[in-house]
Amino acid sequence: MALLTGWQLLMARYSGQEDVTVGSPMAGRTRGEVEGLIGLFVNAQVLRTRVTGRDSFRTLLRQVRETVLGAQEHQELPIERLVEELKPERIPGRTPFFQVMLTYQASFRGAASVEGVKLEAMELDTFSAKFDLTLQVLESDAGLKGYLEYTTDLFTPATAARMAEHLRVLLQEAVAQPNESVARLPLLTTAERHEILVAWNATRAP
Predict the structure, then answer these.
(1) pLDDT along the chain (206 residues), means of 10
(2) Domains plus CATH for the chain?
């Protein structure tokens, strides 16, 4: 929940918008009769959050938690049905409702064995981004591992790396100051603050 809250807060800070919508996949295996089936049952959920600068991170976290729990209760509703019912404006090349995604895979072990057959996960480069921006997080024995997938029409590698650092700083400060208003939580790294306040501000003259 904290990771999703930080991600949505980062999107709000970057965009300057208070209404933030992020997509997130749900497992879609809520029924016992599908447990033995092989296949992809994942369904994308639309997670919408209202981010105001007056709210504390703790308040925002509570709001996101309620949104996620509500979405999980209806995770079997296909996103295609939402599109059919709500009829959002369609733009070629863009998904309806959201262009930013967060995926979280718990208990990732990297290898498995099924009836004597060894299975091992491999990272594949698809050479194409499904959304404008996707934060993918994997849970493993060593901790959390994540990376950003982005469309190169909108972002450069340097921008993506800077965005990842801003998320790290934001989450670090939010944990340290959960009652601080989200508008006041810092994003900049120590090096960026020095560059802006010192290096770019070297205006002294004889």
Answers:
(1) 93 93 78 65 83 92 92 80 82 83 75 74 74 88 86 92 94 94 91 85 80
(2) 2-28+39-108+120-198 (3.30.559.30)
